[in-house]
Amino acid sequence: MNKKVILLSLALSLVFSAMAQKMPKGAKYWIRGNYTLMVEDGKWVGKLYDLQSKNIEFAKTDTLRGTAIEDNYQRFVFRDVKCEQDLSDKGPGLKFYKMTSTGWEPDSEVKNAKLDNVATSDMVVVLTLDCSNSLGNNFNRVKQSAINFINILEKACPEGNVKLGLIAFNSMNYADKNTVAIQPLTATSKEKLNDFITNLQMGSNTALYYSIDKASQMLDKYVSKNYKAGSDLYEGAIIVSFTDGYDNASLDANLGTKGVDFENPYFKHVNGLVHEKTIGGKKLESYLIAINSDDADSKENGKFARLLKGVSSKDENFMMAKDFNEVDQKFREMGESLVRRWENLVCMVPPAHEGQVCWVLGGAATPAPTTKASRSSISSDRYFIGANAGFGLSFNTKLDHFLVYIGGEAAVRFNEQVMGGVYFSTNTLLDITFGPLAIVDLYGWNCLFGAGLNYRPGVIDYSKSWEPLNLRAGFTFERFYGFVSTDFGWNNSKLRSAVALHVGYRF
User: Which is nearest to 293 in space by CA: 265, 275, 264, 320?
Assistant: First the structure.
């Protein structure tokens, strides 16, 4: 009997010791994982697995590979990050912690994790540029705006993760002769592209639909040749177009010529492309910058705008410049919006470490953020509903029963720190236990407390009775929670007690 009691106590101690080591005390925003370092092809490669997070969302993956940078630090890039706290250079960032023999310890030599432009995949872009006579004296300003757009993309990723092609159009014949094949955008290729744009000449007509059609074919051919289906190295295919007037030159014998404006067969063809075509398993994206010329109205709901929205993959992908002073601004906004796709969370791990690691904002060693209202570490959800199962031992002077428990908890938020509600459970002795429940954020720990009554209906070995004291205490996490419960009462003039360990899942 004594051995069983000792073993149970030891098991409970180990379980709650492990729970207490889950995160540095006070952590409200964190990413945690297991880290290992190995050599592959003569290079150090770090890997993160069993990734979990709280109040920070990112693109989930089974294993995240690192990249060795200066002094063999491993750089890990988390994509599609969402967090209500400021993780940019303006914010404090996430502090690095490592698990040691004495628990979580911060490493002040490791740079805080923040959002940064780090390309993890390739963006394939074709720029189609209107060179029609209607641009007049503003043609050079348009060309400089296109050059600025290219410079923004190259500056954000000089390693060539942007693959860029170019189609300059007025007539269809001009577009065929003034095309630059898709290629990695680097400092060298950027200069060649900029020189190409500088030397462009104006001409008659506006073959916008033909140029978008031609761009989609270029993208399809390049992506199918250079990327495997479903490749993580491929971000997507994008067409960025600029025009100052209606299409008046796009013809295709297979499409015919019957119909104008929204009934134009070439318009319908391109409209279908930009809304339905997939390239490399991802939907083609079409963006368009426009300015009204003498033959185009400038109203946002006018025919000109509605036609050009029709050859943009989304209405919000269309930008209308009021004048040529705004054209450069729109090109810059377009470039910066594409670059923001690579605004990823960059986390560093020192070279000589293996085991559990985490990045924390709002821990005990990190000042709580003040830029926005903080969220309670017991989650910002209004309700808590969970079910639990457990096991325990019953004593009536001596150990007499091994118990199995099932039960549930429900609570509602009172304020940012406290939730209150009720609990219920029963066991293999058919005890019925219930009472009030509180879930409290205490210095960042997610603590669960309950105190109530236990009723025995008079079956198995015990007489019918009420037992005045049932207590429970434990911790809650993202979806799981655990606690210890105890019962005390008199049965047949003898002190009866029970102790149990419960594990629950929050719905």
Answer: 320
Burial 373-396 (b: 16+ CB within 10 A, else e): ebbbbbbeeeebebebebbbbbbb
* Distance, CA of 464 to CA of 491 (rounded, Å): 8
Report, in angstroms and rounded to the nearest whole number, the Rg of the chain calculated over CA atoms.
Answer: 32
pLDDT tens-place string over residues 231-268? 778 989 999 999 998 999 999 999 988 888 999 999 99
pTM of the model: 0.58
Confidence band for 22, pLDDT divided at 50, 70 and 90: low
Residue whose token pair is 């680097």: 186
Residue 372: predicted pLDDT: 34
Query: Region 75-87: what's the mean pLDDT?
Result: 85
Answer yes or no: is pLDDT of 450 > 60: yes
Task: Count CB neighbours of 142 within 10 A.
Answer: 24
Q: DSSP secondary structure string, 4-64?
A: HHHHHHHHHHHHHHHHHTSS-TT-SEEEEEEEEEEEETTEEEEEEEEEEEES-B----SEE
- What values do phi and psi take at 457, rounded to 5? -80, 0
Q: Please say if the pLDDT value at position 343 is more than 70.
A: yes
Give per-residue burial for 250-265: e unless 16+ CB within 10 Å, then b.
Answer: beeeebeeeeeeeebb
Query: Three-state SS for 447?
Result: strand
Q: How confident is the model at residue 365 (pLDDT cuts 50, 70, 90)?
A: very low
Spell out the residues 6+ positions from residue 471 whose beta carbon is closer than 8 angstroms to its own: 450, 451, 485, 486
> What is d(CA 117, CA 288) in angstroms, rounded to the nearest whole number?
24
What tokens were used for 136? 């007049």
DSSP string, 470-485: EEEEEEE-SSEEEEEE
How far, CA to CA in Å, does 130 sit from each of 210, 257, 311, 335, 375?
A: 12, 22, 15, 18, 50
Q: Which residues contact 1 (CB under 8 A, 6 or more apart)?
A: 398, 399
Tell me the Ramachandran region of residue 112: left when phi exceeds 0, alpha when psi lies from -120 to 50, beta otherwise.
Answer: beta
- pLDDT at 129 > cutoff 50: yes
